[in-house]
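cron nightly-structures :: item 1 of 1
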Amino acid sequence: MVDGRLAGKVVLVAGAGGGMGRAVPLLFGRHGAKLLLVARREEPLQALATDVRALGGVAEVATGDLTTLAGAEHAVAEGIAQFGRVDVLYNNLGDAASSGRRLHETDEAAWDFLLDINLRAAYVTSHAVLPHMIERQRGCIIHTAAAPATRLRANAGYGAAKAGLLELTRSLARQYRHDNIRVNVVCPGSIGGSQGAEDAELPP
């Protein structure tokens, strides 16, 4: 049942699918937001869109590589084409691949992947949506990091990328505050389907 708290708001969900990429869109849909669900694979997106609609929400899907600026620009353009605007970018992209490897065991391809999916994706999706938000003089960008983002020890690439994401968010929040654009980061703890909890030095 839709409660209307976010009625009419258009949310682009980058990295929709499983874990928070499923739970958050369902929550947004339940509150009345219109969703554009974006990821590489269409099948899980269509399944999620069906679940959002079953709750009374509105959801469309688009596929693309959101670690590239071209892919991010296409997603934003699709959101505008479908709904007329994008009010919120929710960036859920992230991966802790090569978890547990020490640096000398992490090859260049694995390192590049970690920085691309955990940090570069936040840059390109923000880069793509900001001109639209500046023109409208309103908007909200939400990035997803991790609760232990500054305490990761076993996975240097993942930890470096997530720590960088925190600083990117702080910088964007300052740069665009006068354009009425809010930029925040959420740092969830370990959740079902999450990766990297074993890399964190957490208190008992």
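cron nightly-structures :: done
The longest strand covers residues 34-39.
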